[in-house]
Amino acid sequence: MADLGHRACAVCCLRDLTRVFVPEYRVLTLSTQWQTTWDRKMLLTYLQPDPDPINFVTPGPIGSADIVINDTAVYQTVYGFGAALTDSSAQLLYNLKTQNSGSYWSLMDYLFNATDGANSAGFSFIRVPLGATDFSAKNYSYDDVSGDTPLYDFNIGATPSYVFTVLRDILSINNMLRVYVLPWSPPGWMKGSGTMDGGSLNTAYISVMANYLLKSLQGFQSEGIPVYAIGIQNEPENSNPTYPTCSMPVSTEADIGIALRTYMNGNGFGDTKIIGYEHNWADAANYPVQLMQQAASSFDGVSFHCYAGTVSDQAEFTSQYPNKEVYLTECSGTIGTDWWTDIKWYMDNLFIGSLAYGSSTGLMWNLALDGNGNPKLPGTTSCTPPCRGVVQVNSNGTWNVNQEFYAMGQASKAILPRDAGGPWGQRIGVSVGGELNWALVVGAYVTKRVSTTDWNRYSIVVLNWDDSESTTWNPQPVTATIEFRGLQATYTFPVGVTTLWWYGPD
């Protein structure tokens, strides 16, 4: 470690020579920044550091805040950010494609282009419902023939065709996309209520439901959509009679997972993950823990929603099952809320905070909705007040992205593979000291390289929320020092979110 620091200092002192003989990124230098500021003057904007370069040098006094990177502490891989492609989202996007193809492809590139350094968010994780949700035109499952226990009438084509069209378009832009699928309800005839809207599964149909999920995987495969993971039931502690939901006890979900894992292993889906729970932080100490107690060998991990409890509740699960994966898979914005207040909450709780508590993803609810939070399933009481999409698609063939886009985009820039086919970012250790340590919320990441001779990319995502919002509005930039391997750089963070890159040897 001492030799590395000596070499880095020597490089910094001789930077004029190194610019001639080696690539610029070989210097321990803050090389790239992406920024979204509270006043919207910067919106996921790429810019070079000022002054340029900002080198890591021999440490001096710390700044008002002091960010200390510990890259010897390496945690979970982060697979990215995104949202749910509901039927409503897919319908709006497909209509945009029909109405204004150029606008559609421009939007899709801005959302999903994951090329290193591209002017885009690089979303890389999509959640797709199996059957109807509260954001569908009508209620349907893949087999609505009552009593069809062999599932002879199973039909993946019940999915509106525009869902698969949009998914294939996304994959044409980002072939690293991970697709996660799960139902909001079993077919109504499998439930005691006789309807997809509320109620619970008749346990006589546990093996049938497991087969239904297997056939769903096969159906997506037939449509050319590779599936990364499948869930058993969205929000198993929620039964709402106005849209597809299903109350599912832990024992039922465990039994379905055990049967499904056997079916998947025997039908070419052994590498496809099964994710359990899929509900709020508030019950992290109970439902997902009990699920692992009953069926740990069948489930790769669990997922959380943000609507009850706090992000720190994730530790109630990870402390007991540190080797199981954790995903943050749903949170929704609400139409009419404050742009900057939302971004602060998202970064603190989701796109920095949830990752700090072990999540490998950060996903919002609907990828796209209109300006009124529509279209929705007729008669549903969900999303009151109206939910906001990551993207707003307008009837005149235009679109605009909302605060969710910028929050996720800033986080995404830190973890995307540096090389084509290369590793994803991993969370590493970080702490914040100094008199203004409270002003910065920081996540730190390392992205390894394909070639062992190339230096790793190190990234930090920094929220500066020193805006005195609770008293007199007074946004203040924070000058911070960044400590890395015995060296120090200094950077002034405006009020907003900043993502910084630098490179260093493994």
Write out key terms for the chains shown.
alpha/beta, nine-stranded mixed β-sheet, 26% helix, eight-stranded parallel β-barrel, 26% strand, disordered N terminus, 24 strands, 506 residues
Strand order of the largest sheet: 3-2-24-21-20-19-5-22-23
Structural class: alpha/beta
Show unreliable segments: 1-25
**Could you describe the largest sheet, including whether it forms a barrel?**
9 strands, mixed
Distance between the termini: 11 Å
Q: Radius of gyration in whole Å, from Cα?
A: 23 Å
Tally of alpha and pi helices: 12
Helix content: 25-40%
Q: Output mean pLDDT.
A: 94
From the spread of the alpha carbons, the general shape counts as globular
Tell me how many strands there are.
24
Instruction: Give the percentage of residues in beta strands.
Output: 25-35%
Task: Provide the fold topology.
Layout: H1 2-13, H2 15-21, E1 29-30, E2 32-37, E3 45-47, E4 54-55, E5 65-77, E6 80-84, H3 87-99, H4 101-112, E7 125-130, H5 161-173, E8 178-183, H6 206-222, E9 229-231, H7 250-265, E10 273-280, H8 287-295, E11 301-305, H9 314-318, E12 325-330, E13 333-334, H10 339-351, H11 353-356, E14 359-366, E15 368-369, E16 387-388, E17 391-393, E18 399-401, H12 403-412, E19 426-433, E20 440-447, E21 456-464, E22 478-484, E23 487-493, E24 496-504
Parallel strand pairs: 5-22, 6-7, 6-14, 7-8, 8-9, 9-10, 10-11, 11-12, 12-14, 15-17
Antiparallel strand pairs: 1-4, 2-3, 2-24, 5-19, 13-16, 17-18, 19-20, 20-21, 21-24, 22-23
Helix pairs in contact: 3-4, 3-5, 6-7, 7-8, 10-12
